């Protein structure tokens, strides 16, 4: 193939042209393909394009109305948008340059902004691009950015997971797995702010000191864990069960303000905790005293006051003989007494 440059002849072998423009087509004046770049040949999966009519294998989508060599000549130097039924993807971009002496057209093609999809869908490598083409370098940058973004995303998820775990640990009693005092305070204020009625129980274990004194702290820890299990079983997932002291627990029963219903729940807890708890060959005997108050007794409810009233009711239960329940009396009840 002979190309003209500055009025003088310059010969460029097909191999050299393919090295510079792996996606080129040489189209003769009769619109038949007389030369093809190596990447384009590979993409056509062995189809021999040489001698084939260009317009039978390629359609120029833009500019419209370009269907013959005369129109292709007229659009020399204008960006062309092409498609081929043999190539998947978003299509090709190209620019046509007339050959000397009316021999035809040199059409250099590229994937344009669809290069990322083309590399993925057509399994291209750097060998399919000219050495001076920045496409592959751009892809390396994109891949590096994607890798960094994915790594940052993973790091963010790990940090978020660690943060969530740390927050959970900060709200959890390590011995029993129940909520701790801080978690209870947050949940109690949330319940008050939500203006939904709730019950509040303060529970203290009876005879627990005797277990520690006679069988040791290992037995005491075992008993506390068993008590925690009972409290969780006798309440709902929406309730909050917290250990607020050595053998003291507070239960926040969300959405439950009926004193009779709350007393029934407390009664079941008292009954179950009166049953012996096995520790090796020993039987640990404890009981539970419970003080109860209800948010509807207050206008408005105040966390500190409710906790104080539940605590007073708890000590009234202990003075009444232990293993029993006492309910805080609202002002209207006190007025009738």
From TrEMBL:
It comes from the Bacteria. Pfam families: GGDEF (PF00990). Residues 196-330 form the GGDEF domain. This is GGDEF domain-containing protein. Gene3D superfamilies: 3.30.70.270, Haem NO binding associated domain. SMART domains: GGDEF. The lineage of its organism: Bacteria, Pseudomonadati, Pseudomonadota, Alphaproteobacteria, Rhodobacterales. PANTHER family: DIGUANYLATE CYCLASE DGCT-RELATED (PTHR46663), GGDEF DOMAIN-CONTAINING PROTEIN (PTHR46663:SF2).
């Amino acid at each position: 193939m002979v190309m003209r440059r500055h009025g003088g002849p310059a010969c460029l072998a097909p191999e050299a042209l393919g090295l510079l423009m792996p996606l080129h087509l040489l189209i003769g004046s009769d619109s038949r393909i007389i030369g093809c770049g190596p990447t384009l040949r590979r993409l056509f999966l062995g189809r021999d394009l040489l001698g084939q009519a260009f317009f039978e294998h390629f359609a120029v989508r833009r500019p419209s109305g370009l269907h013959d060599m005369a129109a292709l000549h007229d659009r020399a130097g204008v960006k062309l948008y092409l498609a081929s039924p043999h190539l998947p993807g978003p299509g090709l971009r190209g620019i046509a340059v007339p050959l000397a002496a009316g021999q035809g057209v040199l059409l250099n093609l590229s994937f344009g902004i669809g290069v990322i999809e083309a590399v993925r869908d057509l399994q291209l490598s750097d060998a399919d691009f000219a050495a001076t083409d920045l496409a592959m370098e751009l892809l390396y940058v994109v891949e590096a950015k994607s890798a960094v973004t994915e790594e940052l995303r993973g790091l963010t998820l790990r940090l978020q997971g660690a943060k969530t775990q740390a927050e959970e640990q900060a709200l959890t009693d390590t011995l029993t797995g129940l909520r701790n005092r801080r978690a209870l305070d947050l949940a109690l204020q949330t319940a008050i702010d939500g203006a939904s009625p709730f019950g509040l129980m303060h529970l203290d274990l009876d005879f627990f000191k005797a277990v520690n004194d006679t069988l040791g702290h290992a037995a005491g820890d075992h008993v506390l864990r068993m008590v925690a299990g009972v409290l969780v079983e006798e309440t709902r997932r929406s309730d909050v069960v917290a250990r607020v002291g050595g053998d003291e627990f507070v239960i926040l029963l969300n959405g439950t303000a009926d004193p009779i219903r709350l007393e029934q729940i407390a009664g079941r807890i008292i009954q179950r905790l009166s049953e012996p708890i096995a520790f090796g060959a020993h039987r640990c005997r404890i009981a539970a005293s419970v003080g109860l108050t209800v948010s509807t007794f207050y206008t408005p409810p105040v966390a500190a006051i409710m906790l104080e009233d539940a605590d007073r009711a708890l000590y009234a239960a202990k003075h009444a003989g232990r293993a029993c329940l006492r309910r805080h009396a609202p002002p209207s009840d006190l007025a009738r007494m």
